[in-house]
Amino acid sequence: xxxxxxxxxxxxxxxxxxxxxxxxxxxxxxxxxxxxxxxxxxxxxxxxxxxxxxxxxxxxxxxxxxxxxxxxxxxxxxxxxxxxxxxxxxxxxxxxx
Length: 97
Fold this sequence. Notes:
The chain has 1 helix and no strands. By secondary structure, the chain is an all-alpha fold.
C-alpha cells in the first residue's frame, strides 16, 4: 500500500505537467493566430493601397479622356466655322451659268 500514494503522486504530477503543456500549446496557438491576423490585415492593407493606386490611375485616364473630348469639341466647332465660312463664300460667288 505504500507504493500507492507514490503512484498517485506521480499521476498527479504527470497530470499537472500535462495541463501545463496544454496551456503552453494553447498560448503558442493564440500567438500564432494573432500573428496570422496581423499578417492578413497587413496584406489586406497592401491590397487596398494597390486598388487605391489603380483607382487614381483610372481617374487620371478619365481626366485625360475628358481633355481629349474637349479638344475634339473645339475641333468640331472649328470645322463648323469653316463650313459656315465656305458656305458663305460659295453663296457670294457670282453665278457663272
